[in-house]
Amino acid sequence: MDTINFRRNRRLRNVSGIRSMVRETILKKEDLIYPIFVVEGNSVKNEIPSMPGIYHLSLDNLAIEVDEVVSLGIPSIILFGLPNSKDDVGSEAYSDDGIVQKATRFVKERHPDLVVIADTCLCQYTDHGHCGIVRDGQVVNDESLDLLTKTAISQAKAGADIIAPSNMMDGFVAAIRQGLDAAGFGDIPIMSYAVKYSSAYYGPFRQAANSSPQFGDRKTYQMDPANRIEAIREAESDVMEGADFLIVKPALSYLDIIRDVKNNFTLPVVAYNVSGEYSMVKAAALNGWINEEEVVIETLTSMKRAGADIIMTYHAKDAARWLEGK
Ligand SMILES: [Zn+2]
């Protein structure tokens, strides 16, 4: 046979041992952050209808949940709170007895080594459901910053290891950094929702967190899904303002953005595998249409391959189990 010149790329795929030697991306349970929804009360464990397997938990049930997270070897959780009462300035977000503050103290006492991340926003605490203060139908930027800073400080006081501001006001990282430093929390890192799109994939979360805006939408502060260069600009502002991690949210439809952020900055990149992404996989799995384990591992691996160092995901507990089984 004449020698034709072509490459034998299959040589490196022939046997499992070689495949694992040349594997470029390894998903680990240490990469995962598990989001948890906490509520006031006792013995509450209500499944969120659009997010099978995810619950609203009161502190007594939160205990069982975090014990499981720790036993699975997941290093970190992010807490979202549902307060009993809401008002127009989101008072419960920055109350020392707010639900996230109580849950943070509770978890840190039980598992001092579990990294607790506090989501810093107002939308779950305001009666209008926006992430800032509203005046004349507009979300006003600078006044919102004061309340977000107060929220971050009260979360740090409660023992949060990382502050994760998700509000997308201009200057939120600078304001929160300054506030934390002045309050003696100079060592607490900020995991900034640097690149957060105005996305329909948040639908199930809003049902879960009861945080839909009561008027208008969040398009004046969250990004247009059509924009790519703007993501660099947003991330750049947060880097300049002192962010320690950069979050890209959502993840699955934004893998190109994750790669852009990874290539342009040196901070750790966090992908938020959001509620709608989780719900789609769950719905298909419950119908027997896909192999859930394989789809979840492939999806999370693709986020790492795109450039994410860390992944926030509702699949974290299942993924940790599946990764151990391998
Ligand atoms: Zn918000």
UniProtKB/TrEMBL annotation:
Enzyme class: lyase
Protein name per the record: Delta-aminolevulinic acid dehydratase
Protein family according to the UniProt entry: Belongs to the ALAD family.
Keywords: Heme biosynthesis, Lyase, Porphyrin biosynthesis
Pathway: Porphyrin-containing compound metabolism; protoporphyrin-IX biosynthesis; coproporphyrinogen-III from 5-aminolevulinate: step 1/4
CDD domains, sorted: ALAD_PBGS
Organism: Sporosarcina siberiensis
Gene that encodes it: hemB
Molecular function in Gene Ontology: porphobilinogen synthase activity
InterPro entries linked to this entry: ALAD, ALAD_AS, Aldolase_TIM
